[in-house]
Amino acid sequence: MQVNNRLLDDLARLATGAVGAAAGVRDEIEALIRERLRRLLDDADLVGREEFEAVKAMAAKARAEQEALAAKVATLEARLDAAGNGAGPEALTRDAGADTVAKVDNR
Questions:
Q1: Cα–Cα distance between 27 and 33 in angstroms, integer?
Q2: pTM (2 d.p.)
Q3: What 8-state DSSP symbol labels residue 105?
Q4: β-bridge partners, 94
Q5: In whole angstroms, how large is the CA radius of gyration of the chain?
Q6: pLDDT at 23
Q7: Cα–Cα distance for residue pair 46/48, rounded to 1 Å
């Protein structure tokens, strides 16, 4: 029986060593995969969350400003039409010397 006990003890030590070695290999493989993924993501030139949120806020602000300006233009066009001179927005022209919009006189 002594031989069987030694044989079983040796097999148990061998199995324990193999499991430990397999765990070490697994840890090394996981570390290599993490490093490769980290390099891949760094090379992908992805945007960080803070930068994304900042650009999102800028886009929302620009959209709100654009909508406000569109409403203002619609109000001005309505006032121009209501002025009774019959000249609609088509009668507006840009003055070449200035950066203002001038109304064309249709008389």
A1: 10
A2: 0.43
A3: P
A4: 101
A5: 38
A6: 84
A7: 7
Q: Where are the alpha helices (DSSP H) in the chain?
A: 2-43, 49-82
**What pLDDT, on a 0 to 100 scale, did the predictor assign at position 63?**
98
Q: CA 27 to CA 59: how far, in whole Å?
A: 44
- For residue range 16-67, list pLDDT tens digits in order: 888 888 888 889 999 999 999 999 988 888 888 999 999 999 999 999 999 9
**Is the pLDDT score of 93 beyond 70?**
no
Note the pLDDT of residue 5: 83
What is the spatial distance between Cα 66 and Cα 56, in angstroms, rounded to a whole number? 15
Angle at 93 between CA 88 and CA 99, to 5 degrees: 130
- Polymer length in residues for the chain: 107
**Burial readout 20-53 (b: 16 or more C-beta within 10 A, e: otherwise):** eeeeeeeeeeeeeeeeeeeeeeeeeeeeeeeeee
Cα separations in angstroms, 1 against 7, 10, 15, 90: 10, 14, 21, 109
